[in-house]
Specification:
The structure is a homodimer. With about 800 residues, chain A is an alpha/beta fold. In chain A, about 35% of the residues lie in helices and about 15% in strands. A 6-stranded parallel sheet of chain A has the order 12-9-13-14-16-15, sandwiched between helices. The termini of chain A are far apart.
């Protein structure tokens, strides 16, 4: 068999190099082979997969780093995890976890023998097998790396409050061009070496993306050094392609970096957080497709963008390529790596760390193993007293802030709860949490700063990407969190939500993955109350985006007042494996339910408000439905108008907290059975539905319901800017007058005789708008309106 | 009247300082006053707005920079525009444009006298007035700055291909924490000083966001310098608070920066692009709320986060605050600034640049003024010959790539067309454009690079944020562009799309804003063909997100083949003021329509494919509808099965290109009239609708249609990963067998007798899946299936 000449590997790295060759061999095998896994017979077309899918380019570099990390883990007894930013190097990480034995432990049919190798190879990117990325199926992974940009954030999130943990985070130079990654270098200002673990970023410059050169590979070492120093890191460069040299360079850089991390931690933990240190990081310059084919058909492959996916293809048409593939794979000398049965040779296998020191078996990467329930105070203790519906005002988020403050206090000892927000915790009126903790910063703190401390547990940075990414890393390693955000700007992380929801969906079908805490969003400073900011800050569409994901992982709540928000928040903090989206306002608003009623209401998800209805539970003329705090207020005021002006009209009021209760049971587990739905919304009465978001969402959720043809939804129509709260509802036809007028218009019995009422409603609306335009504020009768007379 | 002691302003800056004071005075006036604009009577509660809305903190700094830019424009006859990253400093930019006279030119009722001042003040953040940000209503603005992160991208986009243009871009230190902004510093590697203009970034460190300190304000000048040098900039620092010193420092820094830009441009334009230069930038450290109240009620305001919005409030409860406000506003000495009639004094007004040299009147900021139609080749010349539907295969995007190549060639002289893509132009099979131009890079270029040159017109960077932001800036300054992207990852810019769509919606109602070219997305490498990447790369939901925006600005197209894609692309490149979303695959797929038929089909938007139907245009048993290339293929194969197995079944085939044609005419201008819709989809036949995206979107668009209750939509269900193309459709029940079975099931006349056909379909489906699982590829009869027998 043709061999490449063995490079002169220094003896101390001989076994490590063998491990690396084994990982590279298994990586190429996964991309190419479905038979003859050890090349113990001449390679033939039938051994090669008919469809070649995967990414070789980044893989040998990932394997190189993984092998060197194992050396360091053994030498230092490190508690470490591996984050593969270039997650499309999946075959590499899968190979390494297989070499460590973990893969076979969780998937026994992928055994450590020739048959297991064949299965390992075949399943990769194969129908019914495993996907090409470092997906949830990969033991040791908390980061798929499919959508690029989030590796460093996941790494930081993982080590927060894990003082002994090290996250080795490989960042591809393609990924480094993304917005999220570019901002996330600054995460080191939000890490406290006294209480948190450490991240070792390894920027892997292989020079090319799919097609073009990368930015950071072309700015030169001097400028790159400045950039990293500017970000607060001290880079060490490992550059080259000759393994005989590269092992020594990498080992030295890694040892120096780990020494530096150790020194920073020792100092911070003994002398306190003193001067700000530069954290170590490594720049690894190695060829794309390293150790793969140098040239194919006269075209250079290794070290170019052409090594990105599958460097050798077209075997049916070009049989000579079969020999090239065989030569390439045999250059790793599999006969030196695997024994007669196909098991990794014992002396090489002995390089793997032991038990949970293996990065693939580190329990932090299967966070549910470590998850402890949050200690929660009784949310009822924070209730607003509501002697009568509508009689008192409260700021819903401020009340929940007090609950969260005590959640923070009760779990301070466990150090497993953090609150994220893009500089909006106080603005969103959750400020009570600052009675229990501070904003986190390990950067310079000045006397005038408001609740900023290196021990703070509120993570504020003006980047939704950072908040989201840190939280994902924190949750996936078995902790809890709460993310409050301006409603409109949560769209900045639409795609990150996508990836997290997909991760959760997949993990539900992986038996060894234990449930993690849900990702809880509180969307506030919402569309209806952008008094300071106007049109650019108005977008209630995140929930439309969320409901496209698998019903089994998403939940959406629109509590109408403070007590329902308390109940929903408590529920979400207890839940597992979901993304919970809560939408609630921060402004003083009328309160409707006392805490007992709120709890009952939330447990069903939607229901008739008997106390507001006058249909005595039978045959309403019209159903006035609402979801969201502002729509609920306007609906109640509309019902007030209707019952006052047309006392004979039979009105039923329905409030929806759990949006997914509207969906059919076949579409979402929270969907109400049709019979219950029909009993609430009737099967024939017009339903005037005042909705917080875009009206189409209600239609989309209810189109299978029997009465859907009678649903008339009012919601946000992309109208209005900096104006008064009431005017916002008028401009979008969600106000009490439009709702009442629509109700009258839909009831033929009334419509034909209520012309004077309609005229009255129109007149009053005009009067209000004239007042608003003249005075710049709502008429007192709007602002002070109370649901009191009924 | 109480005066602050006048600072000892150097004589050469006396008038400039007066301008700045005037701008600050007008800014405070906008936030606070609705009467008594020049304080010529004692300030009283009735003069103060009842609701105080706006942001003071950033405003004086913006005014300072604007005034200094004007000095430089006059001195150097610069062609410059102003980008206010902290767009919530709207009152400042509005004030400056008013001082320049432009505001009154476009809004004559905001006259340059006392009455005009009163109107200027009152309208700000007032119902029926203007919003609080640097919104489209602001002359000279191409950047609202409501959602933070995009200022530097808009600045670069504006100066591409505008060699004489300078964009002065103010970046707040809050904004600098966002992902998009962090990545966008690297834009300088995509700017060619020989053919493009220049951006002068001014990082405005006022130290605080809404509540917390900012990252870049707390890393020290040394580290910040390293960071900026690492990004390829040479920072100059202007730090302080005493205007007597600050004017000189700012003028010197600005002059040195402009000299440096000039030198870079001269060198690049005479000697060619040689060494990479560091571009100048300025770091301005000034207090938040500079020149505003120092303390209020004993609490420090200036220089703290408390200056962020409205520093003085509560006038009704605290009448003493009225005096504080009067004192603050009079500290600007309005009596020295405005004449008896309320006009800016002539000597101060003379500081404004002349005509279009005013940044507020620069035609680049009203791009439609400069917009030239693209020269377009006849798209019919690129048509795929389709002798018979389904007879040939083609790669739709590859064909359109040839069209785009010639668009590039025809407009090379005008230099007004660019293609954006996150490193995916070749992957998305638009590679023909590289016959006409290259990838753009002004960084180091190596021999092995594939079509990379500093004169390239294809902008490739692995950041959807950068592609989107550059393109927005390019379009808003009157040019054309085309953005191709992997479908799943366009969600990364959901929120940027939001802001651009909102901008377009508002500009449609501003008479002086001229229409700009549409923002054209080609979403490819779509959900159904993620062969290499799997689940993380599957998300067709961007179109759900898009249709939430105003119907007047959004268009969505799903051309089923190459010729329809050509027709749609041609249409989109001609359109104005829209966001056009085109979804089309890149893989070899069956072709259905010759170019004449394609053009007819696209002009209506949807239609019956008579040649595929056997209902002779009357009373179909079932309508087989489809939208998208893969759904069309599966629908055609399903129709093939149905017509073969059940020749008596009357099948009508409807294909939808223009998704909004499904919407009611009241919902979207493209919506088909109900009568036409009913004639196509019938009013009673079952409609089996195979859809590219999430099924709910079709329900949401059609729920008002008469036959909606009979729509049965098949689409993406968040199932499948790296598997075969056909298996992807099976896992999501979009395949031919599921479609045919569903059709049979919905026609009672057939259903009850076609049990054997249903069994046959089930058997064949199982047979296919077994083959796929065994062989890793689709059975040849699937891959080679042709619509030929009919």
């Amino acid at each position: 068999m043709p061999h490449s000449p063995a490079p002169a590997i220094p003896a101390r790295f001989a076994l490590l190099d063998a491990w690396w060759r084994a990982a590279n061999y298994l990586s190429a095998g996964q991309i190419y082979l479905m038979g003859n896994p050890l090349l113990r017979e001449p390679l033939a077309l039938e051994h090669i997969k008919p469809r070649l899918l995967g990414h070789w380019g980044t893989t040998p570099g990932l394997n190189f780093i993984y092998a060197h990390m194992n050396r360091a883990i053994n030498a230092r007894d490190l508690d470490a995890i591996f984050i593969a930013g270039p997650g499309h190097g999946g075959p590499g990480v899968v190979a390494s976890t297989y070499l460590e034995g973990t893969y076979t432990e969780v998937y026994p049919h992928i055994s450590r023998d020739t048959e297991g190798l064949k299965r390992l190879f075949t399943q990769f990117s194969f129908p019914g097998g495993i996907p090409s990325h470092v997906s949830p199926e990969t033991p040791g992974s908390i980061h798929e790396g499919g959508e690029l940009g989030y590796s460093l954030l996941h790494a930081y999130g993982a080590v927060f409050d894990n003082p002994e943990l090290l996250a080795c985070c490989v960042i591809g130079d393609g990924e480094a061009e993304t917005g999220a990654l570019a901002a996330s270098w600054h995460s080191n200002k939000f890490l406290n070496p006294a209480r948190d673990g450490a991240v070792l970023p390894i920027l892997h410059l292989n020079g090319y993306k799919i097609a073009g050169p990368t930015v950071l590979a072309r700015i030169g070492d001097e400028q790159l050094t400045q950039l990293m120093r500017g970000h607060g890191y001290e880079p060490r460069f490992v550059s080259g392609h000759d393994p005989a040299l590269m092992h020594g360079l990498m080992a030295d850089a890694l040892d120096a970096s780990l020494d530096a991390i150790h020194a920073i931690q020792v100092e911070a933990r003994s002398d306190g957080l003193g001067q700000r240190h530069r954290w170590p990081m490594i720049v690894l310059r190695s060829p794309k497709g390293w150790t793969g084919p140098k040239t194919v058909d006269g075209v250079r492959i290794e070290g170019t963008q052409r090594a990105h996916q599958v460097p050798l293809t077209g075997f049916a048409e070009k049989p000579a390529h079969i020999a090239l593939l065989q030569e390439w794979m045999q250059s790793y000398r599999p006969e030196e790596l695997f024994d007669a049965d196909g098991a990794l040779r014992a002396d090489i296998a002995a390089l793997a760390p032991r038990g949970t020191r293996r990065m693939s078996a580190n329990p932090h990467t299967n966070g549910g193993l470590l998850l402890k329930n949050l200690k929660l105070p009784d949310f009822r203790d924070y209730a607003v007293a509501v002697p009568k519906p509508g009689a008192v005002d409260a700021e819903a988020t401020r009340v929940t802030g007090e609950f969260l403050r005590d959640v923070m206090r009760l779990n301070a000892g466990e150090r497993n709860f953090r609150i994220m927000g893009p500089d909006e915790t106080t603005s969103n009126r959750l400020g009570a949490v600052f009675e229990a903790t501070d904003r986190m910063s390990s950067a310079e703190i000045l006397p005038g700063d408001d609740h900023v401390a290196p021990d703070g547990r509120v993570m504020e940075v003006l980047s939704e990407h950072l908040c989201q990414g840190w939280l994902e890393g924190y949750l996936l390693t078995g902790r809890h969190g709460f993310f409050s955000c301006y409603e409109a700007f949560i769209h900045i992380v639409d795609s990150m939500f996508n990836q997290h929801a997909k991760w959760l969906k997949v993990t539900r079908n992986i038996p060894w993955r234990r449930p993690v805490a849900s990702l809880n969003y509180l969307l506030t400073s919402h569309v209806w109350r952008q008094d300071h900011n106007g049109f650019s800050h108005q977008d209630p569409g995140f929930i439309d985006h969320v409901v496209n994901k698998k019903a089994e992982v998403v939940r959406v709540y629109l509590p109408p007042d403070a007590n329902t928000l308390l109940s929903v928040t408590d529920h979400c903090l207890r839940s597992r494996n979901y993304v919970n989206v809560i939408v609630a306002g921060k402004q003083p608003e009328a309160q409707w339910l006392d805490i007992a009623a709120a709890e009952r209401h939330c447990s069903v998800g939607l229901g008739i408000w008997d106390w507001a209805s006058n249909d005595n539970g039978v045959a309403p003329d019209v159903v006035m439905a609402c979801a969201g705090d502002v729509p609920t207020l306007e609906t109640m005021a509309a019902v007030d108008l209707l019952r006052t002006l047309l006392p004979d009209l039979k009105v039923r009021v329905v409030n929806v907290v759990d949006l997914m209760a509207l969906e059919s049971p076949s579409g979402h587990p929270h969907g109400l059975p049709d019979a219950v739905f029909d009993s609430i919304f009737s099967t024939d009465a017009p339903v005037i539905f005042a909705f917080h978001g875009y009206p189409a969402l209600i239609h989309r959720l209810t189109y299978k319901r029997r009465n859907h043809g009678n649903f008339h939804v009012h919601g946000y129509l992309e109208e209005g800017t900096t104006t008064t709260p009431f005017d916002m509802t008028v401009l979008n036809r969600l106000d009490r007058f439009h709702l009442a007028a629509d109700a009258i218009d839909r009831v033929p019995r009334i419509r034909d005789t209520a012309g004077h009422v309609q005229q009255h409603l129109r007149d009053r609306l005009l009067e209000h708008r004239a007042y608003i335009t003249r005075h710049g504020q709502d008429m007192p009768e709007i602002a002070d309106w109370r649901w009191v007379r009924h």
